[in-house]
Amino acid sequence: MDAAAAKQVPGVLEVLTVPRGVAVVAKNTWAAMKGREALTVEWDDAKAEMRGTDEMLADYRKLADQPGNVATDTGDAAKALAGAAKVVEAEFVFPYLAHAPMEPLNATVELNPDGGCTIWAGSQFQGVEQKVAAAMLGCKPEQVVINTVWAGGSFGRRATTDADYIAEAVSIAKAYGKAPVHLVWTREDDIHGGRYRPLFLHKVKAGLDASGTLVAWRQKIVGQSFMEGTPFEAVMVKNGVDATSVEGSSDMAYAVPNLYVDLQSPKSPVTTLWWRSVGHTHTAYAKEVMIDELAAAAGKDPVAFRLEMLKDHPRLQGVLKLAAEKAGWGQPLPKGKGRGIAVHESFSSFVAHVAEVSVDDQGRVTIDRVVCAVDCGQVVNPNIVEAQISGGTGWAIGHALRDEITLTGGLVDQSNFDTYQPLRNSEMPPVEVHILPSTARPTGVGEPGVPTAAPAVANAVFAATGKRLHHLPFTRSGMV
Asked: What global pTM score does this model have?
């Protein structure tokens, strides 16, 4: 590393080598950024990911054709598929996704005279961060004080098992030692070197009997585990299966007598992390789009088909019926418009979405209306339920429409909001949230609004165009 030019930038105070790389300390953010641009650094790529996403997917497809670690095996799916009257198969691809909060990662650290420190950050994982900071400073955890401030978005990104950006700030403050340090990541830092919802590939094969009843389901899932190698591995990874990779699939509520789900968790240096609604971000989509395809193959209404298989799940039935009723399910729509539905349980809450869309001749998708029903137990504040479910809806459909993180030669192609584009306010559809009264214990609402929103839109696009959307984002299928 050659810091000579960086040190000549006005405002630059020092250039430090720290455990996670090189830090430029300056009087202000702009000077620090210009100083970093002037650095000459030689990096060792020996252990880096050098593949592109297309190459990774090719490797994933090979893995999907091999036996994986069994997550669920009920009945005899292979035999039932062999004897099924109709078999439907689909491959689903889910890209890497960034969290991309409006406020990039940042933290302020002040070293204390007792050998500890005081931290100001929009934190999600204070317990982990306190221990990491204490270990770096050689002090007791109680000597690390964390002031949690309002954060401009997190979505899971500010909850890492190694306290990444907090550790960076503490290491810089320790190395500098002359004043409090405010660490700032740029938007490009966040997009290029963040922690992503993993890339996943699903291969689903399902069979119907002569009466149109679902009799077999086989699902092969391939994607990185973000629990392996963390303190949570002992609890969350059993027999090679990361529970967060298969949740929503291995415990599928639909009544299917022969169910098989397995998982392959290939390793890669690409850093991954939970993302709002975790594994349900992809498992619910694959399940609900596939169920819609099976309903079509059986010649049955998508709502009626689902209700048949949810007889033992009254709370899922309840939100499904309520969403369908409030959305006017079954009422005719003009040509070029479609209505789709999806239902799912996550974080012990039950949610159904109905989406109405318009698709023009160029494949442009407009989401005209979204109706959502939620059963999250006893509700304390209905306004919070509505806000969280609406926010989760916007989060999900925005990413499904066009967002992805792709790699070329191991480098991330996207960099800012011109190439990674969350949903704009002008694109947010009207969302109706209907709460099912319940006396059950309160459960989650921060994440359950995500899983069913995108598949409901995808199923609506099918109703309008006859086109199935298996490869996210929708732009991969020619929809814009």
From this structure: 0.96
